[in-house]
Write a structure and sequence with these properties.
The structure holds 2 protein chains of 2 kinds. By secondary structure, chain A is an all-alpha fold. Chain A has a domain of 175 residues: Orthogonal Bundle (MetI-like fold). Chain A is built from 15 helices and no strands. Chain A starts with 10 loop residues before the first helix and ends in a 6-residue tail after the last helix. The two termini of chain B are 40 Å apart. The longest helix of chain B is centred in the N-terminal third of the chain and has 33 residues. Chain B is mostly helical. In chain B, helix 1 crosses helix 12, helix 4 runs parallel beside helix 7 and helix 4 runs antiparallel to helix 9. Chain B has 2 domains: 57 residues; 210 residues, MetI-like fold (Orthogonal Bundle). The chains are: A mainly alpha, B mainly alpha. Chains A and B meet through helix 1, helix 2, helix 4, helix 5 and helix 6 of A and helix 1, helix 4, helix 5, helix 6 and helix 7 of B.
């Protein structure tokens, strides 16, 4: 999306002779996609925001508008407060680590070494498998007696560290972060690599003639060169991580004792386990507001001039 | 320090990163495959390697013959295929429209379509459930399919639009001047050239639908529309977890995605990020 703000050379400016029939067809082509998006995204969004001002329940057909009552309850709802801060901590930590580790992985893959082609071709496998399978894979590995992690820890003589990793109040959240890294770091790596390979070699050669070292080349050529890819990857993953529901719901359900609750899981539990649709929608509305704030900041950063090319 | 020793250091460091990555990213998958061939007893010894007689195909036999796994597998496959075809149709024509036609508020539309992904699905699904309920689509394949469209469609349109932008306009402009209709231009000119991008788009929607838990957990009420992610969750939620069977179910769920992945892996990232680099 990074490039939408710039003026893209439009093909039809070169050949502007469209008949009326053609113009009309352009809109026709958009109808199916826009119809589905409107009915199943735009309308539900508006209706969800409206619901945040009601006491709607899944069990009763009738409901009333309660003004800001739901929102007034939020500050005193401890689970909400914890989920909110944890959502932000989780998203920030995960995206920063993914970014750094992705860069390191891309650097390694950029080296022309035997076997690297094969490595590049399999490394994204973790990204394509279903999250439910990932979660059960890690739940099995985290088992206290039979899990691989604890088997290895015992072999290393670290008995005292063995535990059910998803069940330990202090270890559960870091372990969930690990799952996010497991799934997405290879995607970052491969994407950054693709962007790095598009940087002309002559830039590096010129820098070498000027006596630039490895860090300086990275700082002044590589990073600006992959800037657009960084923006896209970070943006997509901030949204995906913040809204992510199934990792935590399937691994801990928010436990132990709410230690891994995040906003999406809380909204899900409120709506489908407590049937409090109105209150759930108000928590969802808070999520929308946070994402809008992020979106505004994102646009600001993106409009900042001086993107070296 | 000579150049060649710097090179060797670089190579060692790179291989070290590769080795750690293989252990971290690939080993867990191999471990679950491996576990699916072990008996419950052998898993519970806590040993990494067990005597040969403790390897078995029983887990797969149980999952395939005793449980309803085949039904769920068929449901998953059916839903994922319909989602893929329907979303491809909608996104290809929409992306073509956005890429080639003079459409008012075009950029706002693209940003709008892309930003629909930003909204929390856990919120959208509440009204969506009520819509599907009033359309009598709860627990119907069509209901699951339509709901899953929102997971894939915006991203697909954005990505394919970027992909089409990178194809030279001369291609279909020539066909237009020759009097080809829009469907003809799309099918016989654009599709063959854009096939790699379209394959990635198809792969994306198949994998997202195949792995979806959120929507299925709400829209599905009975076996009629239950998919593999649900059965994996149920196998793993029982009191005494039969890890061998969970591993077999996971393996059978993973394998189709890995097979499809092997067809697109070279193009995957290029395709996924086409929307990001278009017009530059």
């Amino acid at each position: 999306m990074g490039s939408e703000k710039k003026e893209i050379p439009m093909p039809w400016k070169i050949t502007p002779r469209f008949t009326w029939k053609e113009r009309y067809s352009g809109y026709l082509l958009l109808i199916p996609a826009l119809a589905i998006i409107s009915l199943f995204t735009v309308y539900p969004l508006l209706d969800g925001l409206r619901m945040a001002f009601t006491d709607r329940s899944l069990l009763l057909p009738s409901y009333e508008y309660v003004g800001l009552d739901n929102f007034a309850q939020l500050p005193s709802d401890e689970v909400f407060r914890l989920s909110l801060s944890r959502s932000i901590i989780l998203t920030t930590t995960v995206v920063v680590l993914q970014f750094i580790l992705g860069l390191i992985l891309a650097w390694a893959m950029q080296q022309r070494l035997p076997g690297m082609g094969f490595f590049k071709s399999i490394i994204m496998a973790s990204w394509v498998i279903p999250v439910a399978a990932t979660v059960y894979m890690f739940r099995f590995m985290a088992q206290p007696d039979v899990g691989l992690i604890n088997i290895v820890l015992r072999l290393l003589g670290l008995q005292h560290l063995t535990r059910y990793w998803f069940g330990d109040p202090n270890a559960a959240l870091p372990f969930i972060m690990l799952l996010h890294l497991w799934r997405n770091v290879p995607f970052y790596g491969v994407a950054f690599l693709a962007a790095m390979q598009a940087i002309p070699r002559s830039y590096y050669e010129a820098a070498e003639i000027d006596g630039a070292g490895g860090w300086s080349k990275f700082r002044h050529i590589t990073l600006p060169g992959i800037r657009n890819m960084i923006i896209v990857m970070v943006t997509i993953h901030v949204l995906w991580t913040f809204n992510n529901f199934d990792f935590i719901y399937l691994s801990t359900g928010g436990g132990p004792v709410n230690r891994t609750d995040v906003l999406p899981v809380y909204v899900y539990r409120l709506s489908w386990e407590s049937y409090r649709l109105g209150y759930a929608a108000s928590v969802g509305a808070v999520m929308v507001v946070i994402l809008l704030i992020y979106f505004v900041i994102y646009l600001r950063i993106h409009e900042r001039p001086g993107a070296a090319k | 320090m000579s150049i060649s020793s710097a090179r060797i250091r670089t190579a060692i460091l790179a291989y070290l990163i590769v080795a750690i990555s293989l252990i971290f990213f690939i080993l867990p998958m191999l471990w679950i495959f491996y576990t699916s061939f072990r008996t419950q007893a052998s898993i519970f010894t806590g040993a990494v390697i067990s005597p040969l007689r403790e390897y078995t195909l029983e887990n797969f036999a149980t999952v395939l013959l005793v449980t309803d796994f085949p039904t769920y597998f068929r449901n998953s496959l059916q839903i994922a295929i319909i989602v893929t075809l329907l979303s491809l149709f909608c996104s290809i024509i929409a992306a073509y429209g956005l890429s080639r036609f003079d459409i008012k508020y075009r950029n706002a539309l693209i940003v709008g379509i892309f930003s629909t992904q930003m909204f929390p699905q856990v919120l959208l699904i509440i009204p969506m459930f009520l819509i599907l309920f009033s359309l009598n689509l709860i627990d119907k394949v069509l209901g699951v399919v339509l709901a899953q469209m929102i997971l894939v469609l915006p991203f697909q349109v954005w990505m394919l639009k970027g992909y089409f932008d990178n194809l030279p306009i001369e291609l279909d402009e020539a066909a237009r001047i020759d009097g080809c209709s829009i469907p003809r231009r799309l099918i016989s000119v654009i599709l063959p050239v854009a096939l790699p991008g379209i394959m990635v788009a198809a792969f994306y929607s198949f994998v997202v639908s195949w792995g979806d838990y959120l929507i299925v957990s709400i829209v599905t009420q009975t076996q009629r529309t239950a998919t593999l992610t649900l059965v994996t969750q149920r196998l793993g939620a029982s009191l005494l977890v039969r890890w061998g069977q969970v591993a077999a179910a996971c393996t059978l769920t993973i394998i189709p995605t890995i097979i499809l992945f092997s067809f697109v892996q070279n193009r995957l990232v290029e395709g996924l990020t086409a929307g990001a680099v278009s017009g530059e």
